[in-house]
Amino acid sequence: MLSFNDGLSRRSFLQVGACGLSGLGLSQLMAASGEKDPWKLFSGKTVIFLFQHGGPSQFETFDPKMSAPGSIRSMTGATSTSVAGTEFGGTMTKLAKHADKFTVVRSYQTGSSAHKIQPIVSADTFGANIGSYLSRIIGTNNPKNGMPLNVAAFPNAVVEDEPGPFDTFGRFADAGPFSKGFEPFVPGTGGNFQEDLKLHIDRLRLDDRKALLKNLDKIKRQVDSDGSLEGLDKFQSQAFDVVMGGVSDAFDLSHEDQKTIDRYDTGHLTRFDEWKDKNNKNHYKANSNSLGKLLLLARRLAERGCGFITITTSFVWDMHADQNNLGMVRGMDYVGNPFDHAVAAFIEDVEARGLQDDILLVATGEMGRTPSINARAGRDHWGGLTPLLLYGTGIPRGHIIGQSAKDGGTPATTPVRTPNLIATCLDTLLDIPQLRLRVDVPPEALKVITGAEPIAGLG
């Protein structure tokens, strides 16, 4: 007999399972073998892209420039790290202790000072989320358990009543030149949080979807009648195993150990009462309440076979002024502290679980901040240099790649650019040499996937 005593109703369980499978082709479900099976191109690893929306400052994060004049150097001071001779901004105290486990790139530049959402979605990706390239090549779901391969998660995925995607400067869940079937799966809260996936089906796979759902309906009737799986044919049993494979469970943090949830939680790190006069107060609140839990959700999805996960908490890193918005000092208090806590907790958790060779964490924003502090105790938009943190599979531990100029405004070494970062992500996920031999890859996909070299110094 099947038991549904975990807080999910039988109806919602079946709904989650069916929706999670709605983009799964029959060939994937049956795990077809052969040389042309696209699943063989997938590394089985996960890229978690933590997008710091608003433009984080390179000085107050990972390149404090404390020997520069006071008008340039970090306004939050500096903290020593576990790597001799390396300092981070004064707010990054927890990450400083783990600096020997990840790489910081000090020569990365997005090249734009506009509030767009590059590099997640940009001209370099033809307007598609990076994860949509994985979906286009491999498929939308993991054939082993039905897990969506490409997910974009926002505050409302983990905290009820917090906002969903902040798409003012670009749509995170966009598939660009591909059909809607390859858009990221966007979880939310409530019983219908996976309803949107029903609308994201490639027409070419519509018949597969109908056949799959028809069989799931049969399973539902069978289970409803006697709670057993006896009498189901091979395909039905296989489909049910997929539904039971953890798709619904993965998105539900109530199944996580409470001590782990508390360890990630960032909601207690800021003082909400001080935000009442700030234009972006709702964004700051959403960031604090959700950032740690979003990283916990991402770890759960990675463990269950998700390939690319976009995380962002809304527009919080725009630290122009300590007036209507936040300047650098209070901004790093309200926004930098949760970031420092959440990423450090993630690294500790991944290391403890032995997942460091299976997950790549990327943390960056759409731009950096001006070398000079403005008259309002903030820093303005700057496309010349952007902070970038990389941790996990294939990433050297305790490294600094590249150097910035004396004023921290431009690379002093060969610049790392967005196509290099995109290539690093996709090289982690795909067997690129084998992909080049395929004749069925769309030219726009091949151009993005193979158009640039991964970041030098990581291999």
Task: Give a written overview of the molecule.
- The structure is a single chain.
- With 459 residues, this protein is α/β, with parallel strands linked by helices.
- It folds into 2 domains: 1-30 and 195-250, no CATH class; 42-190 and 256-450, Alkaline Phosphatase, subunit A.
- 32% of the residues lie in helices and 10% in strands.
- It contains 13 helices and 13 strands.
- It has a 7-stranded mixed sheet, sandwiched between helices.
- Strand 2 and strand 3 (87-89) form a beta hairpin.
- Helix 4 (130-138) runs parallel beside helix 11 (418-429), helix 8 crosses helix 9 (281-303) and helix 9 (281-303) runs parallel beside helix 10.
- The radius of gyration is 22 Å and the shape is globular.
- The protein starts with 9 loop residues before the first helix and ends in a 9-residue tail after the last helix.
- Residues 1-35, 189-209 and 234-239 have low confidence and may be disordered.
**Helix-strand string:** HHEEEHEEHEHHHHHEHEEEEEEHHH
Shape: globular
What's the total helix number? 13
CATH architecture of the largest domain: 3-Layer(aba) Sandwich
**Strands side by side in the biggest sheet:** 6-7-1-8-11-4-12
Main sheet summary: 7 strands, mixed
CATH C-level of the largest domain? Alpha Beta
Query: Which bin fits the share of residues in helices?
Result: 25-40%
Which regions are unreliable across 5 or more consecutive residues at pLDDT < 50? 1-35, 189-209, 234-239
| Number of spatially distinct domains | 2
What is the β-strand count? 13
Task: Classify the secondary structure makeup into a structural class.
Answer: alpha/beta
Overall pLDDT level: 84
Query: What is the third-level CATH name, the topology of the largest domain?
Result: Alkaline Phosphatase, subunit A
How large is the share of residues in beta strands? 5-15%
Rg calc: 22 Å
Task: State the distance separating the first and last CA atoms.
Answer: 50 Å
